[in-house]
């Protein structure tokens, strides 16, 4: 516990300090985000805010994990690899969006992005099943069950959906960062309760890196994480959930990501089936509440509270196996 908290504190301090020169570099490179015309009009003021801040998170996580938590604990290489792969995918998409705005090559095609998603998810699932020899699910109040080969397609689906859910949530200042830190913190506690100190340390390292980034991402955001950070965090969170065997409570611990992703799917599906009608004023869910008159900080902080509640309930259930 002490070691995990110490590494987390060091990561938080280093990320916060490194954030200032990193932000200055992004501004020099002029990697300003283009704001979608389909979003709330108030968000147009954010145009030009540096994106790809997820590189700061990834650098901190990889750096401190390699230095303080990898040697002798090589299983940590799996979530690190998943985060790096999805971060690279997100980086290509973010860079493509910037180049497209300048008349260069465009962002990744949705089909190409989906195929890459699934490929990375399959590699992660195979690593869990064959490399770490995991195939169990812990069911609260019922015990542990072996899923055998079914474990692989389930893991692929959960990893892909979680990465997508975090990416969809990255639409307000501090929303994805805060809720990701909460979720990783919860799984850090679960890992420590299982005496997986190395995994708990990794979770606290990620949570701390995200909180360091949040220093610059809180409203009004000075930089955004982009898909570079969001996809990496989602994939890493799902991988950690499988490594603890407590992936069944992931929808609770990551409840905000579930609500955000589901609202997007429901809105699009209902729009097509109803011939143009909508359930929400705007999707994903955080925009719906903005349209109801909530300020951006209100939406973010209230979603954080929902995330904290979900994390508490999920952690409690994880103890009941």
How many separate domains make up the residues? 1
Number of helices: 12
Q: Beta-strand percentage?
A: under 5%
Helical amount: 55-70%
Strand order of the largest sheet: 1-2
Based on helices, strands and strand pairing, what is the structural class? mainly alpha
Q: From N to C, what is the helix and strand string? A: HHHHEEHHHHHHHH
Mean pLDDT: 89
User: Unreliable stretches, pLDDT < 50, 5 or more residues?
Assistant: none
N- to C-terminal separation?
22 Å
Based on Cα principal axes, name the global outline.
globular
| Count of individual beta strands | 2
Radius of gyration: 19 Å
How many strands, which pairing sense, and closed or not: the largest β-sheet?
A: 2 strands, antiparallel
Task: Give a structural overview.
The protein is mainly α. It has one domain (2-319). Helices cover 69% and strands 2% of the residues. It has 12 helices and 2 strands, in the order ααααββαααααααα. The chain has helices at 2-29, 54-68, 77-101, 110-131, 151-169, 175-193, 197-217, 226-244, 250-253, 255-274, 285-291, 296-319; strands spanning 136-139, 143-146. It has a two-stranded antiparallel sheet. α6 (175-193) runs parallel beside α12. The mean pLDDT is 89.
What would a concise description of this structure say?
By secondary structure, this protein is mainly alpha-helical. It is built from 12 helices and 2 strands; from the N terminus they run H-H-H-H-E-E-H-H-H-H-H-H-H-H. It has a two-stranded antiparallel ribbon with strand order 1-2.
